Protein backbone atom coordinates (compact mmCIF):
# COMPACT_ATOMS: atom_id res chain seq x y z
CA UNK A 1 0.00 0.00 0.00
CA UNK A 2 1.57 3.30 -1.04
CA UNK A 3 1.95 6.29 1.22
CA UNK A 4 -0.93 8.25 -0.35
CA UNK A 5 -3.39 5.45 0.31
CA UNK A 6 -2.08 5.02 3.86
CA UNK A 7 -2.42 8.77 4.42
CA UNK A 8 -5.97 8.79 3.06
CA UNK A 9 -6.98 5.84 5.25
CA UNK A 10 -5.41 7.49 8.30
CA UNK A 11 -7.24 10.74 7.54
CA UNK A 12 -10.55 8.93 7.19
CA UNK A 13 -9.98 7.03 10.41
CA UNK A 14 -9.13 10.26 12.24
CA UNK A 15 -12.22 11.97 10.84
CA UNK A 16 -14.39 9.03 11.85
CA UNK A 17 -13.00 9.03 15.40
CA UNK A 18 -13.42 12.80 15.66
CA UNK A 19 -17.03 12.60 14.44
CA UNK A 20 -17.75 9.78 16.89
CA UNK A 21 -16.24 11.82 19.74
CA UNK A 22 -18.25 14.93 18.85
CA UNK A 23 -21.53 13.06 18.44
CA UNK A 24 -20.91 11.10 21.65
CA UNK A 25 -20.27 14.39 23.45
CA UNK A 26 -23.46 15.85 22.03
CA UNK A 27 -25.56 12.89 23.12
CA UNK A 28 -23.90 13.03 26.53
CA UNK A 29 -25.21 16.58 27.00
CA UNK A 30 -28.53 16.63 25.16
CA UNK A 31 -29.91 13.11 24.81
CA UNK A 32 -32.06 11.13 27.23
CA UNK A 33 -29.59 10.39 29.99
CA UNK A 34 -27.60 7.27 29.24
CA UNK A 35 -24.29 8.45 30.70
CA UNK A 36 -24.82 9.17 34.42
CA UNK A 37 -22.00 11.66 34.78
CA UNK A 38 -21.30 13.46 31.50
CA UNK A 39 -19.43 16.71 30.88
CA UNK A 40 -22.21 19.11 31.89
CA UNK A 41 -23.14 17.16 35.02
CA UNK A 42 -19.50 16.89 36.09
CA UNK A 43 -19.06 20.63 35.80
CA UNK A 44 -22.38 21.33 37.52
CA UNK A 45 -21.14 19.22 40.41
CA UNK A 46 -17.78 20.97 40.59
CA UNK A 47 -18.21 21.70 44.28
CA UNK A 48 -16.45 20.39 47.34
CA UNK A 49 -17.43 16.90 48.48
CA UNK A 50 -18.83 18.44 51.65
CA UNK A 51 -20.93 20.91 49.67
CA UNK A 52 -22.36 18.15 47.47
CA UNK A 53 -23.09 15.95 50.46
CA UNK A 54 -24.96 18.75 52.21
CA UNK A 55 -27.20 19.73 49.27
CA UNK A 56 -27.94 16.06 48.52
CA UNK A 57 -28.66 15.40 52.19
CA UNK A 58 -31.00 18.39 52.31
CA UNK A 59 -32.83 17.23 49.19
CA UNK A 60 -33.13 13.69 50.59
CA UNK A 61 -34.77 15.03 53.75
CA UNK A 62 -37.24 17.10 51.74
CA UNK A 63 -38.05 14.08 49.58
CA UNK A 64 -38.77 12.00 52.68
CA UNK A 65 -41.14 14.75 53.86
CA UNK A 66 -42.83 14.81 50.44
CA UNK A 67 -43.40 11.04 50.61
CA UNK A 68 -45.68 11.62 53.61
CA UNK A 69 -47.98 13.81 51.49
CA UNK A 70 -50.69 12.82 49.06
CA UNK A 71 -49.14 14.09 45.82
CA UNK A 72 -51.22 13.63 42.69
CA UNK A 73 -49.46 12.51 39.49
CA UNK A 74 -50.78 13.95 36.24
CA UNK A 75 -50.14 13.09 32.56
CA UNK A 76 -50.08 15.78 29.87
CA UNK A 77 -49.30 15.61 26.16
CA UNK A 78 -47.20 18.43 24.72
CA UNK A 79 -47.42 19.74 21.16
CA UNK A 80 -45.07 16.96 19.99
CA UNK A 81 -47.34 14.28 21.46
CA UNK A 82 -44.78 13.54 24.18
CA UNK A 83 -46.21 12.51 27.55
CA UNK A 84 -45.08 14.73 30.39
CA UNK A 85 -45.57 14.15 34.11
CA UNK A 86 -46.76 16.70 36.65
CA UNK A 87 -46.97 16.43 40.44
CA UNK A 88 -49.57 18.35 42.44
CA UNK A 89 -49.60 18.95 46.20
CA UNK A 90 -52.68 20.95 47.29
CA UNK A 91 -52.29 23.57 49.99
CA UNK A 92 -53.23 22.75 53.57
CA UNK A 93 -56.12 25.19 53.37
CA UNK A 94 -57.98 26.31 50.27
CA UNK A 95 -56.17 29.02 48.28
CA UNK A 96 -56.14 30.31 44.73
CA UNK A 97 -52.31 30.62 44.63
CA UNK A 98 -50.30 28.02 42.70
CA UNK A 99 -46.53 27.67 42.48
CA UNK A 100 -45.47 26.12 39.16
CA UNK A 101 -41.86 25.00 39.52
CA UNK A 102 -39.31 24.28 36.75
CA UNK A 103 -36.34 22.05 37.60
CA UNK A 104 -32.75 22.25 36.38
CA UNK A 105 -30.57 20.35 33.95
CA UNK A 106 -30.68 16.56 34.44
CA UNK A 107 -32.87 17.05 37.51
CA UNK A 108 -36.55 16.18 38.00
CA UNK A 109 -39.63 17.23 39.95
CA UNK A 110 -38.05 15.68 43.06
CA UNK A 111 -34.76 17.56 42.64
CA UNK A 112 -34.63 21.37 42.77
CA UNK A 113 -38.42 21.79 43.22
CA UNK A 114 -38.54 19.61 46.32
CA UNK A 115 -35.92 21.82 47.97
CA UNK A 116 -38.77 24.37 48.14
CA UNK A 117 -41.87 22.20 48.48
CA UNK A 118 -42.07 22.30 52.28
CA UNK A 119 -41.56 26.07 52.36
CA UNK A 120 -44.40 26.73 49.94
CA UNK A 121 -46.68 24.16 51.59
CA UNK A 122 -46.00 24.73 55.28
CA UNK A 123 -44.96 28.39 55.49
CA UNK A 124 -46.89 29.94 52.59
CA UNK A 125 -49.94 27.64 52.30
CA UNK A 126 -49.73 27.62 48.50
CA UNK A 127 -50.65 24.88 46.07
CA UNK A 128 -47.42 23.37 44.70
CA UNK A 129 -47.04 21.95 41.22
CA UNK A 130 -43.75 20.58 39.91
CA UNK A 131 -43.02 18.80 36.64
CA UNK A 132 -40.64 16.41 34.95
CA UNK A 133 -39.44 18.24 31.85
CA UNK A 134 -38.96 16.41 28.58
CA UNK A 135 -36.40 13.55 29.01
CA UNK A 136 -36.42 14.00 32.80
CA UNK A 137 -37.86 11.81 35.53
CA UNK A 138 -40.88 9.89 34.23
CA UNK A 139 -41.51 12.17 31.23
CA UNK A 140 -40.89 10.97 27.70
CA UNK A 141 -38.66 12.50 25.05
CA UNK A 142 -35.24 12.08 23.46
CA UNK A 143 -33.65 15.52 23.67
CA UNK A 144 -33.77 18.22 26.31
CA UNK A 145 -34.05 21.83 25.17
CA UNK A 146 -32.07 24.03 27.57
CA UNK A 147 -35.36 26.03 27.95
CA UNK A 148 -36.45 25.83 24.28
CA UNK A 149 -38.78 22.84 24.75
CA UNK A 150 -39.25 23.34 28.48
CA UNK A 151 -40.69 26.86 28.28
CA UNK A 152 -43.30 25.82 25.70
CA UNK A 153 -44.26 22.80 27.79
CA UNK A 154 -44.64 25.02 30.86
CA UNK A 155 -47.25 27.05 28.98
CA UNK A 156 -49.14 23.78 28.50
CA UNK A 157 -49.02 23.24 32.27
CA UNK A 158 -50.30 26.78 32.85
CA UNK A 159 -53.23 26.07 30.52
CA UNK A 160 -53.89 22.86 32.44
CA UNK A 161 -53.99 24.69 35.77
CA UNK A 162 -56.31 27.40 34.46
CA UNK A 163 -58.64 24.88 32.85
CA UNK A 164 -58.80 22.74 35.97
CA UNK A 165 -58.86 25.37 38.71
CA UNK A 166 -60.35 28.42 37.03
CA UNK A 167 -59.52 31.71 35.34
CA UNK A 168 -59.09 33.52 38.66
CA UNK A 169 -56.12 31.56 39.99
CA UNK A 170 -52.81 33.25 40.73
CA UNK A 171 -49.61 31.58 39.55
CA UNK A 172 -46.02 32.01 40.69
CA UNK A 173 -43.37 30.68 38.30
CA UNK A 174 -40.21 29.53 40.08
CA UNK A 175 -37.24 27.84 38.46
CA UNK A 176 -33.67 26.82 39.30
CA UNK A 177 -30.74 26.69 36.83
CA UNK A 178 -32.15 25.52 33.47
CA UNK A 179 -35.53 25.94 35.17
CA UNK A 180 -34.57 29.52 36.00
CA UNK A 181 -33.80 30.12 32.33
CA UNK A 182 -37.08 28.40 31.42
CA UNK A 183 -39.20 30.80 33.48
CA UNK A 184 -37.14 33.73 32.18
CA UNK A 185 -37.89 32.56 28.63
CA UNK A 186 -41.60 32.74 29.47
CA UNK A 187 -41.56 36.19 31.05
CA UNK A 188 -42.68 38.22 28.03
CA UNK A 189 -45.57 35.90 27.10
CA UNK A 190 -47.20 34.86 30.36
CA UNK A 191 -50.99 35.13 30.75
CA UNK A 192 -52.53 37.42 33.39
CA UNK A 193 -52.82 34.54 35.87
CA UNK A 194 -49.02 34.61 36.31
CA UNK A 195 -48.29 37.29 38.89
CA UNK A 196 -44.51 37.02 39.36
CA UNK A 197 -41.41 35.02 38.48
CA UNK A 198 -38.57 33.80 40.70
CA UNK A 199 -35.47 32.88 38.70
CA UNK A 200 -32.67 31.14 40.60
CA UNK A 201 -29.17 30.83 39.01
CA UNK A 202 -30.40 31.09 35.42
CA UNK A 203 -28.08 31.37 32.44
CA UNK A 204 -28.49 34.03 29.75
CA UNK A 205 -28.50 31.43 26.96
CA UNK A 206 -27.43 27.85 26.29
CA UNK A 207 -24.71 29.25 24.03
CA UNK A 208 -23.27 31.36 26.85
CA UNK A 209 -23.53 28.47 29.29
CA UNK A 210 -21.97 25.84 27.04
CA UNK A 211 -19.10 28.14 26.09
CA UNK A 212 -18.58 28.90 29.79
CA UNK A 213 -18.40 25.17 30.57
CA UNK A 214 -15.91 24.56 27.74
CA UNK A 215 -13.83 27.53 28.91
CA UNK A 216 -13.80 26.20 32.46
CA UNK A 217 -12.49 22.91 31.09
CA UNK A 218 -9.48 24.83 29.76
CA UNK A 219 -10.41 24.79 26.06
CA UNK A 220 -10.76 28.55 25.78
CA UNK A 221 -9.63 29.19 22.20
CA UNK A 222 -11.78 26.46 20.72
CA UNK A 223 -14.96 27.21 22.70
CA UNK A 224 -16.83 29.19 20.00
CA UNK A 225 -15.94 26.63 17.33
CA UNK A 226 -16.94 23.77 19.63
CA UNK A 227 -20.31 25.43 20.23
CA UNK A 228 -20.93 25.90 16.50
CA UNK A 229 -20.18 22.23 15.84
CA UNK A 230 -22.34 21.19 18.77
CA UNK A 231 -25.18 23.42 17.56
CA UNK A 232 -24.98 22.04 14.03
CA UNK A 233 -25.44 18.54 15.42
CA UNK A 234 -28.29 19.76 17.60
CA UNK A 235 -30.13 21.28 14.65
CA UNK A 236 -29.81 17.97 12.80
CA UNK A 237 -30.79 15.77 15.76
CA UNK A 238 -33.12 17.78 18.01
CA UNK A 239 -34.35 20.15 15.26
CA UNK A 240 -33.82 23.46 17.01
CA UNK A 241 -31.17 26.16 17.16
CA UNK A 242 -29.53 26.55 20.58
CA UNK A 243 -29.24 30.28 19.86
CA UNK A 244 -33.02 30.37 20.34
CA UNK A 245 -32.56 29.60 24.04
CA UNK A 246 -31.44 33.18 24.74
CA UNK A 247 -33.66 34.62 27.49
CA UNK A 248 -32.55 38.26 27.30
CA UNK A 249 -35.30 39.59 25.05
CA UNK A 250 -37.99 37.90 27.14
CA UNK A 251 -36.60 39.28 30.40
CA UNK A 252 -36.22 42.72 28.83
CA UNK A 253 -39.94 42.66 27.99
CA UNK A 254 -41.19 40.84 31.07
CA UNK A 255 -44.91 41.23 31.75
CA UNK A 256 -44.50 40.51 35.46
CA UNK A 257 -42.21 41.41 38.37
CA UNK A 258 -39.09 39.25 38.64
CA UNK A 259 -36.93 38.17 41.56
CA UNK A 260 -33.43 37.05 40.59
CA UNK A 261 -31.37 34.82 42.93
CA UNK A 262 -27.79 33.61 42.49
CA UNK A 263 -24.89 32.38 44.61
CA UNK A 264 -21.69 34.40 44.48
CA UNK A 265 -19.63 31.17 44.44
CA UNK A 266 -21.41 29.70 41.40
CA UNK A 267 -18.77 28.54 38.94
CA UNK A 268 -21.18 26.52 36.79
CA UNK A 269 -23.53 29.35 35.76
CA UNK A 270 -21.33 32.41 36.34
CA UNK A 271 -22.79 34.96 38.74
CA UNK A 272 -22.20 37.72 36.19
CA UNK A 273 -25.14 36.37 34.20
CA UNK A 274 -27.68 37.29 36.88
CA UNK A 275 -26.51 40.89 36.94
CA UNK A 276 -27.02 41.17 33.19
CA UNK A 277 -30.54 39.76 33.46
CA UNK A 278 -31.41 41.97 36.40
CA UNK A 279 -30.14 45.08 34.64
CA UNK A 280 -32.14 44.53 31.45
CA UNK A 281 -35.41 43.59 33.17
CA UNK A 282 -37.74 46.55 32.61
CA UNK A 283 -40.48 45.42 35.01
CA UNK A 284 -40.42 45.66 38.79
CA UNK A 285 -37.58 43.53 40.08
CA UNK A 286 -35.35 42.56 42.99
CA UNK A 287 -32.16 40.57 43.39
CA UNK A 288 -30.59 38.38 46.06
CA UNK A 289 -26.95 37.32 45.90
CA UNK A 290 -26.21 34.60 48.45
CA UNK A 291 -22.68 34.75 49.79
CA UNK A 292 -20.80 31.46 49.61
CA UNK A 293 -23.48 29.60 47.63
CA UNK A 294 -22.36 27.44 44.71
CA UNK A 295 -24.68 26.44 41.90
CA UNK A 296 -28.30 25.83 42.98
CA UNK A 297 -27.25 26.00 46.65
CA UNK A 298 -28.78 29.34 47.62
CA UNK A 299 -31.80 27.78 49.35
CA UNK A 300 -29.44 25.78 51.58
CA UNK A 301 -26.59 28.24 52.20
CA UNK A 302 -28.79 31.30 52.56
CA UNK A 303 -32.02 29.66 53.67
CA UNK A 304 -33.31 32.37 55.98
CA UNK A 305 -32.48 35.30 53.71
CA UNK A 306 -33.84 33.45 50.68
CA UNK A 307 -37.12 32.63 52.41
CA UNK A 308 -37.46 36.16 53.77
CA UNK A 309 -36.78 37.64 50.34
CA UNK A 310 -39.39 35.39 48.75
CA UNK A 311 -41.97 36.28 51.39
CA UNK A 312 -41.26 39.98 50.96
CA UNK A 313 -41.39 39.84 47.16
CA UNK A 314 -44.50 37.67 46.95
CA UNK A 315 -46.40 39.82 49.46
CA UNK A 316 -46.01 42.83 47.13
CA UNK A 317 -47.82 41.21 44.23
CA UNK A 318 -50.15 38.58 45.70
| Count of individual helical segments | 12
In whole angstroms, the N-to-C terminal distance is 78 Å
Helix content: 40-55%
Beta-strand content bin: 15-25%
Number of strands: 8
What integer value in Å does the Rg equal?
A: 20 Å
Low-confidence stretches: 6-21
Determine the structural class based on helices, strands and strand pairing. alpha/beta
- The topology string of helices and strands comes to HHHEEEHEHEHEHHHEHEHH
Strand order of the largest sheet: 1-2-4-3-5-6-7-8
Largest sheet geometry: 8 strands, mixed
If you average the pLDDT, what whole number results? Answer: 89
Shape: globular
Question: What can you tell me about this protein's structure?
Answer:
- Residues 6-21 have low confidence and may be disordered.
- Strands 1-2-4-3-5-6-7-8 form an eight-stranded mixed beta sheet, sandwiched between helices.
- The radius of gyration is 20 Å and the shape is globular.
- The longest helix has 28 residues, at 3-30.
- It has 318 residues and is α/β, with parallel strands linked by helices.
- It has twelve helices and eight strands.
- Helix 1 crosses helix 8 (223-237) and helix 5 (148-165) crosses helix 6 (178-186).
- It has helices at 3-30, 39-44, 49-67, 117-123, 148-165, 178-186, 206-216, 223-237, 248-252, 272-280, 298-301, 303-317; strands at residues 72-77, 83-89, 97-102, 127-132, 170-176, 194-200, 258-263, 285-290.
Could you write a compact summary of the structure shown?
The chain is an alpha/beta fold and about 325 residues long.
